[in-house]
UniProtKB/TrEMBL annotation:
Subunit composition and interactions: The glycine cleavage system is composed of four proteins: P, T, L and H.
UniProt cofactor(s): (R)-lipoate
Species in which this protein is naturally found: Pedobacter alpinus
Keywords for this protein: Lipoyl
NCBIfam families: gcvH, PRK01202.1
Gene3D superfamilies named in the record: 2.40.50.100
Protein name: Glycine cleavage system H protein
Entry note: cofactor: Binds 1 lipoyl cofactor covalently.
The organism's place on the tree of life at top rank: Bacteria
Domain Lipoyl-binding: from-to ranges: 22-104
Residue numbers carrying N6-lipoyllysine: 63
Length: 124
């Protein structure tokens, strides 16, 4: 499994890629593998401030629906529109075209897990 070292991770299996005052958020390769085939992503929080740890949407696989948790406090400025027609991008490219939201954050990513800490968490 691939876990990019430049990303930060959460215990809930989200990743965050910080770029200045904005960041991209998605789920990890581990999470998408555990969920199985993704069939729908439901995010309707554009323009909303979402606190760290709060739900910002849901992701639906063939057999389950899971909440998506915000890694740090921020305002959702963009949703990945590609996921409407192609939710399977989360399975095929979770760290690239399968990103979920772009946020303008007001918290800090310092408390999130490093790649090594995340690998330890999932036993890799």
């Amino acid at each position: 499994m691939n876990f990019p070292a430049e990303l930060k991770y959460t215990k809930d299996h989200e990743w965050i890629k910080v770029e200045g005052e904005e960041a991209f958020v998605g789920i990890t390769a581990f999470a998408q593998r555990e969920l199985g085939d993704i069939v729908y992503v439901d995010i309707n929080t554009v323009g909303s401030e979402v606190n760290e740890g709060d739900v910002f949407g849901t992701i639906e696989a063939v057999k389950t629906v899971s909440d998506l948790f915000m890694p740090i406090t921020g305002t959702v400025v963009e949703i990945n529109d590609k996921l409407d027609a192609n939710p399977e991008l989360v399975n095929s490219d979770p760290y690239g075209d399968g990103w979920m939201v772009k946020i303008k954050f007001s918290g800090s990513a310092d408390a999130l897990l490093s790649v090594d800490d995340y690998k330890t968490l999932i036993g890799v």
